[in-house]
Design brief:
The protein contains six helices and 15 strands. By secondary structure, the protein is of the alpha+beta class. It has one domain: Carbon-nitrogen hydrolase (Nitrilase/N-carbamoyl-D-aminoacid amidohydrolase, 4-Layer Sandwich). The strands form four sheets. Strands 7-8-9-11-14-15 form a six-stranded mixed beta sheet, covered by helices on one side. Strands 1-2-3-4 form a four-stranded mixed beta sheet. Strands 10-13-12 form a three-stranded antiparallel beta sheet. Helix 1 packs parallel to helix 2 and helix 4 packs parallel to helix 5. The longest helix has 22 residues. It is globular and about 50 Å long. The chain starts with 6 loop residues before the first helix and ends in a 22-residue tail after the last helix.
């Protein structure tokens, strides 16, 4: 969805979408990264820290009540204030009975033009997480995490049946169309590769709209454990979509393509190096 500068407006929009989706049979609902505000990391501004909140806190209280009322799982990406001067990019997970199951703190923090996240966020210290919800065992990674195969692998071998990626990524308005296409294709391809390599469903949920000098490219998509794109949203418009996932696909994928069986973990120690100089 597109966001406004007013958190109450965004939360109100989310409430309506939850009601709409639950009436249509949704069981797990995931919103984009930092959905209660504009993507404020495009600038380094101290006043933006006022957008942060405790987790659990006021927004999770509201979402827990909605989850219980509609019997749905909610995946909510929020700006967490842990204490004065310590902030995280965090996703809370709420079960279908309204129980707050816990949170994942984003581990990989980018620093690029238009994405000044290191100014705002301390890297997550909770490790990779699995949440056993009523409907599935889910893993949650956040945006920049989606480029790292190690994060997807660890989340998968911890037991995730679906990996969700709340996301905020877009094109600089000054970019040419060829660059835009290359970036969008790379974004889709890397996450489809996580599906294939790990035999899991991947669900990536991005925002849309122009904010500052950035056009967020939407394109939210769902891939099955063979990397087949089951659904992909357009680049420009808000959309609420429900997709039925066959969790048995993971077993079939891992049986016929036994990448997990054939891993040579005894050979992987060099990956603990940042770089290997020759």
């Amino acid at each position: 969805m597109a966001c406004s500068p007013v958190p109450e407006e965004n939360l109100g929009k989310v409430k309506l979408k939850i009601e709409e989706l639950s009436r249509s049979g949704a069981q797990i609902i995931c919103f984009q990264e930092l959905f209660t505000s504009l993507y404020f990391c495009d600038q380094e501004k101290y006043e933006n820290f006022k957008l942060a909140e405790q987790i659990p806190g006021p927004t999770t209280t509201i979402l827990c009540a909605l989850a219980k009322r509609h019997e749905i799982v909610i995946i909510a990406s929020l700006f967490e204030k842990r204490t004065d001067g310590l902030y995280h990019n965090t996703t809370a997970v709420i079960d279908a009975d309204g129980t707050y199951l816990g949170k994942y703190r984003k581990i990989h923090i980018p620093e690029d033009p238009g994405y000044h996240e290191k100014f705002y966020f301390t890297p997550g210290d909770l490790g990779y997480k699995i949440f056993e919800t009523k409907f599935a065992k889910i893993g949650v990674l956040i945006c920049w995490d989606q480029w790292y195969p190690e994060a997807a692998r660890i989340t998968a071998i911890m037991g995730a049946e679906i990996i969700f990626y709340p996301t905020a990524i877009g094109w600089a308005l000054s970019q040419d169309e060829n660059t835009n296409k290359e970036q969008f294709d790379a974004w889709t391809t890397i996450q489809r590769s996580h599906s294939i390599a790990n035999g899991v469903h991947v669900v990536s949920v991005n925002r849309v709209g122009i904010e500052g000098e950035m056009k967020f490219w939407g394109g939210s998509f769902i891939a099955n454990p063979f990397g087949v794109v089951l659904y992909q949203a357009n680049n420009d418009q808000e959309v609420a979509h429900i997709e039925e996932l066959d969790l048995e696909k993971a077993d079939s994928s891992r049986t016929h393509w036994p990448f997990l069986r054939d891993r040579r973990i005894d050979s992987y120690k060099p990956i603990l190096n940042l770089f290997i100089d020759k």
